[in-house]
């Protein structure tokens, strides 16, 4: 069997009613044919949207096929034991040119009960934000189910939602159960569990080009919503140059930020996990086993679990999101 190497994948572009043009103009992914490209899935194990390798001798192979062949060597032994041939994370870039629907995602328990795979917790890293851009995350006051339903029926839901002003490099964790929505003028990277289940609660009375409103899931959402109020919904971190800085540690994934302009050595011998690099600024090379692979803004590299000693060499100021799984939930 040929040895594994750092993998790149062919992006999958998604047309959205709220999409824009920043995936082309800001990320340089200018081969999308879509007029309103709202999302690009750059690493996916979601059925019917499974990523296809675009580099090396494995070019043309689907991600799940490679997991079946290479198993723990690709994803890590414990991760393979838990998830089998399904890749556990989904990586996207999102361009919100208008408000997305107010929505919520189920957690693993509810998803299992409804036989829809896994739940969906996610992280947003803001790559670019227009002036006065905002998003919705959670509630702005203590709330219960009855009060929520009353606001929903009276179309006053926005009164009880927490609205955040957003700027570049902000981070938000959206655990399953948290009501949320992206606002216009935002380009971001999203890291999430492998799930495409979204319960739309309210879609701003919006119609498509045929005059139809999108389907809502207000009943399904009721059992998914976490009605807890939090004093802060933004993820605080302290960026530092040429160091790996922690953003989030969750049961589903761990994400860090690397803001660097000099070589960084990485040793993942104790990790037993794949590592995902999302280049969000600049460009550089990943060196492994006396070989190298380049990367640039808008690209994603999947580092197999068996490649546990590498070097990252930036060409000028570069930023990478680094994501892996530390512990597997049972």
Task: Give me the secondary-structure topology.
Elements: E1 12-20, H1 22-25, E2 37-43, H2 63-70, H3 72-75, H4 77-83, E3 89-96, E4 102-104, H5 108-113, E5 122-129, E6 134-139, H6 145-153, E7 161-165, E8 171-174, E9 180-182, E10 186-193, E11 199-202, H7 218-222, E12 244-249, E13 254-260, E14 264-267, E15 275-281, E16 283-288, E17 291-296, E18 300-303, E19 309-314, E20 318-324
Antiparallel strand pairs: 1-2, 2-3, 3-10, 4-11, 5-8, 5-10, 6-7, 6-9, 12-13, 13-20, 14-19, 15-18, 15-20, 16-17, 16-19
Q: How would you summarize what this structure contains?
A:
The protein is mainly beta and 330 residues long. Helices cover 13% and strands 36% of the residues.
Provide the CATH top-level class of the largest domain: Mainly Beta
* Strand order within the widest beta sheet: 1-2-3-10-5-8
Question: What's the β-strand tally?
Answer: 20
Termini separation: 32 Å
Low-confidence stretches: none
| Class per helix and strand makeup | mainly beta
Q: Judging from the principal axes of the Cα atoms, what is the shape?
A: globular
């Amino acid at each position: 069997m040929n040895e594994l190497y750092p993998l790149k994948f062919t992006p999958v572009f998604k047309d959205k009613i709220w999409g824009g043009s920043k995936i082309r103009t800001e990320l340089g992914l200018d081969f999308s044919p879509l007029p309103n490209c709202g999302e690009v899935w750059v690493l996916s194990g979601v059925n019917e949207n499974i990523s296809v390798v675009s580099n090396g001798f494995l070019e043309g192979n689907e991600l799940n096929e490679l997991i079946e062949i290479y198993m723990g060597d690709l994803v890590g032994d414990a991760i393979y034991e838990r998830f089998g041939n399904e890749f556990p994370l989904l990586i996207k870039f999102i361009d919100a040119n208008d408000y997305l629907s107010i929505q919520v995602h189920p957690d693993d328990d509810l998803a299992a009960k409804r036989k829809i795979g896994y739940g969906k917790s996610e992280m947003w890293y803001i790559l670019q934000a227009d002036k006065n851009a905002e998003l919705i995350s959670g509630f702005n006051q203590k709330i219960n189910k009855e009060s929520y339903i009353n606001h929903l029926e009276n179309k006053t839901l926005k009164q009880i939602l927490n609205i955040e002003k957003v700027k570049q490099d902000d981070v938000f964790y959206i655990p399953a159960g948290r009501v949320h929505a992206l606002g216009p003028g935002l380009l971001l990277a999203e890291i999430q569990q492998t799930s495409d289940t979204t319960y739309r609660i309210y879609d701003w009375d919006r119609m498509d080009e045929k005059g139809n409103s999108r389907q809502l899931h207000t009943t399904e959402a009721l059992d998914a919503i976490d009605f807890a109020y939090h004093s802060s919904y933004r993820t605080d971190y302290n960026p530092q140059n040429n160091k790996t800085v922690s953003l989030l540690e969750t049961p589903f994934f761990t994400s860090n930020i690397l803001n660097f302009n000099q070589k960084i050595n990485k040793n993942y011998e104790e990790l037993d996990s794949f590592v995902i690099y999302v280049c969000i600024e600049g460009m550089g090379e990943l060196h492994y086993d006396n070989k190298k692979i380049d990367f640039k803004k808008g690209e994603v590299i999947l580092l197999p679990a068996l490649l546990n000693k590498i070097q990252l060499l930036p060409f000028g100021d570069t930023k990478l999101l680094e994501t892996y799984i530390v512990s597997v939930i049972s």
